Amino acid sequence: MKRSIAALTLLLILAGCNGASEASGESKLSVVTTTGMIGDAAKEIGGDLLEVTALMGPGVDPHLYRASAGDVGRFNQADLVLYNGLHLEAAMADVLGESRTLNAVAVAENIDEGDLLRPAEFGGQFDPHVWFDVSLWSKAVERVRDALVELDEDNADTYRSNAETYLGDLAELHEYVKEQALKIPEERRVIITAHDAFNYFGRAYGLEVRGLLGISTAAEAGTRDISALATFIADQQIPAVFVETSVSSRSIDAVRAAVRSNGFEVKIGGELFSDAMGDAGTEEGTYQGMVRHNIDTIVEALGASS
CB of 147 within 8 A of CB of 82? Predict the structure, then answer.
């Protein structure tokens, strides 16, 4: 009899624990983000209150990403959908922009238009790669915070407190990138990549940016574009060019071959994270780690002043 009572008690305790666990899981808000950078911000601000799913993992190009049937299901079941906006997720526009039932927020559209770049070659649209200027990205992070506060007022103080801490970290990161960029000799402060993802980075931290494909990766580089960039590299004696984790290296390989035919050898300076972060669980799998990796790689490749 005592054994039966003890067994029953144990079962009740386990059931209670499982029920508490399930309740805890059910109490978490479901947040779906398009890019990893937005997902990272949501995790930093929401902590254990959120279940965050970032659709675009390492190496994924958001310019070309199309929502699958599973993605649409995740959107419809989410309490909140956070996306970049500014036409970054162009292939998903029909899902993100036209749904009347979706609670979706474009976080980058919190940035004042006067602070955005509108390159002539982008058809009058804004450059969406705002996360490369850490001070601008902080404005997007504030929009993530506000969206969570609006959704879950009971935990507003937690979201605000976590956001304040995270924004402080980003302010320090912004200063770090500025200091590191100044270590590059002035004549070498040129970043050459497959596409023009780094324009905000260049403006914020004093580097010239040259991309082969333009802002979107949907275009193909022509022979004339490759030749012109190769001539510039050879004439300026630029020591390194960079490949990107989310863009094929074929165009950069073609540029290096063209530079070689001009009598100059340019090396691959390293791999930069542009439209996607690194693997989960690594330093580069966070926004701050991604930014630090990029600037450290650039400084090492272009040569720091003694």
Answer: yes
